[in-house]
Amino acid sequence: MVHALVPVELLESETVPQGVIELLAPAKVTVLGYHVIPEQTSPDQARLSFEDRARDKLDDIEEALETAGADVTTRLVFTHDSEQTFDRVAAETKADVVVHLNPSMDATDLLVALHGAVAAERIGETVAALVAGRDIDVRLREIDGGDEDTLNLLDRARTAMEAGGVDPDRIDAERIETDRPVRTIGELAAGTDATVLGERATDWRELVFGDFEERVAEASLGAVLVVRPKGAAGDDGDDTEDGDD
Amino acid sequence: MSTEPEPPGGVNRGGETPEPTAPVSDGDPSVDEADGVELERTLSLSGALSIGIGTMIGAGIFVFPGIAAGEAGPAAAASFAIGAVVALLVAIPTAELATAMPRSGGGYYFISRGLGTLAGTVVGISLWLGLVFASAFYLVGFGSYVAAVLSEVGVAIGFDPVIASGLLFGVFLTALSMTGTENTAKLQNGVVGLLLVILTLFLSYGGLDALGVFGRVSTPEAFAPFGPLPIFTTAALVFTSYLGFAQVATVAGEIEEPSRNLPLAMVGSVVIVGVFYVATVFVATSAFESQRLAGFGETAMVEVARNLLGAPGAVAILVAGLLATISSANASIMSSSRAIFALSRDALFPRKAGVVNLRYGTPHVALLLAGVPVVVLVASGEVEVLAEVASFLHLVMYGLMCVALLALRRDEPDWYDPDFRVPGYPVVPILGALASFALILLMQRLSQIVGLGLMVVAAGWYYYYARDVELRGVL
Which end of chain A is more exposed for a tag (fewer CB within 10 A), N or C? Predict the structure, then answer.
């Protein structure tokens, strides 16, 4: 079963659209309700003022997901730094996918964008676990510069999806050559309901322009699902600064 | 905490009860959990250090050297050293208490749990007002730098720019805090780093110069022209320069890996600024004789830099002084509002005082309770009294913190399990308490009267409002 982590900024009126709820129905879902507070406020202070309101919203989301058939747990966090919180909870829950929400309502048409050295099989398996046997089309795209070694990403991902039970007729695969991969993925994402990306190692451009996933999420109308590498999900996450318990 | 004590109890005059605070998780040092809600700790060691250092250097380097040299001569360096020793004697016991109870609220929290509600109320109100006096002092210092900039540029205005700009910025900082800031911590880190670089360069050059490396004539002067007593009274005056380590304890609930980072940040920030202060006074008194330094007033360091490095040096110190005094004032206003929150959480103040608004996510009532009195006090313009009252109110807390440590250690409750234990117990906390109270005795009469008056009012508030609240030995 795929384990998805869905961060929701509860008190900024963010909700989980129906399409995402449907898409995650076969998954194990951790809803991470969070609220970012300014430096003037201590997390405990925010808890005393907002906990009840946040709980109500979180309960509504939990109920909707359970109705759709997902296996749901909820967590509620008050934090000064949402990135730190996502990383910590993703490592703790060993999530396979982190979902960036967007307001688009449907999720019957899924873009799977492979870019750079991502784990194609793992992405394929994860997508299959969500869409196998369901009424969802998959647009599989490999986006890279013309001179790149293709690593066979497209075939590896397709094979993994078919092995996972996705109807081959629903997969439409294509390789796209471009000098501006992020922009291209953004344009493709704008025309689909939801997008699946692989988590990549950060490169220097991301430090300048912001996270790759964030930029795609901004360009897209639908949710962006980022598949985490197996290593990150398999152990306790060496990238966090936690000591062992 | 493995063995939780009973929750706090009792009712205040408004019928509110204290809120139990979040237990601190042992396993994961970056998060606490309170009835199913996670509270992220996001301050790194460098962030905690920069809160401590950033709060302190605004006073010790950019406001006091001229004033202190005027009162104690070159021996003002010894006054700063005495201040550092006293601060260390308190910082070490504070670090133990903070690792045993890494909750926001700082010294107030430790004393209310260690010595009970009356001491807690007095200290909590003292902490809030002590930080208010400190912020006002920093803002007057900031005003002096604005005035120096104006005179540097040659702009003459009809009124006193010191108070006016202090007031203006007091209002501005309060308003800014009420709308919420996301990245001032990063900015603060950058500012503190920049200040330390400027100061290191300046003091290295000035130190070599003072030792005669560049062959200029320095001013020979008796080390203690006014005798030994002014060294100690000056130590009491400049002690405001060491208040920042307690601010670190105020945000103890937000620091990652508190057992390691709290002691490091508290003791480390005192040691770092102490070294800088002593070097600064040494360089300043080598460049000018004490009476001339005193004549330059709050912005004496600008003249020292001009003397050593010419106009570029003066500009660098002017910019640094503006940045440092503002970052000190800002950090103190924030800590002050944290202190109010801790009081309202424990039902010693009405719950409304700590409430957070949804629009900006800021505790607007607490920020106003901090910001408004600051602005009122800036209008007085009394630099020395503001500084001494701030020190007085903090020193009461410091002395009582050492007493609280002794009380907790004497009959250790089950829940008391600090990761850091004071070396040299019980000598260090006893000396810390005695030194804190001794410094209070060395202050001006006016500062002592104001400080005592505020404590009496705080005690009166306890009897009126919160006599039935039980905080001792509960978490």
Answer: C
Nearest by CB to B40, from A50, A78, A241: name it.
A78
Is B23 in contact with B292 (CB distance < 8 Å)?
Answer: no
CB contact, 8 Å: B39 with chain A?
yes
Distance CA A54, CA A120 (A): 37
Q: Any chain A CB within 8 A of the CB of B359?
A: no
What is the pTM (predicted TM-score) of this model? 0.87
pLDDT tens over chain B, length 475 residues: 334 456 677 888 887 888 877 666 555 578 888 778 899 999 899 989 988 998 898 888 999 999 999 999 889 999 999 999 999 999 999 999 988 888 877 889 889 988 999 999 999 999 999 999 999 999 999 999 999 999 888 887 777 889 999 999 999 999 999 988 776 777 788 888 999 999 999 899 888 887 776 655 556 677 777 888 899 999 999 999 999 888 888 888 889 998 889 899 999 999 999 999 999 998 998 888 888 889 998 899 999 999 888 898 899 999 999 999 998 998 899 889 989 999 999 999 999 998 999 889 999 999 999 999 999 999 988 888 999 999 999 999 999 999 999 999 998 888 888 888 999 889 999 999 999 999 999 999 999 999 999 999 999 999 999 888 888 877 6
Contacts of B27 in chain A (CB under 8 A): 245
Q: Which of residues 64-93 of A touch B (CB under 8 A)?
A: 75-81, 84-85, 88
Smallest Cα distance from B164 to chain A, Å? 26
- d(Cα B247, Cα B119) in Å, to the nearest integer? 19
Pairing assessment for the beta strands A109-114 and A28-36 based on DSSP bridges:
unpaired
- The per-type count for chain A, helices as H runs and strands as E runs, is 9, 9
Give residues with Cβ within 8 angstroms of B131, minimum separation 6.
B247, B332, B333, B335, B336, B339, B370, B390
Which residues of chain B lie closer than 8 angstroms to A48, CB-CB? 19, 345, 354, 356
Tokens of B372: 């408004």
Chain B positions touching A81 (Cβ under 8 A) are 40, 42
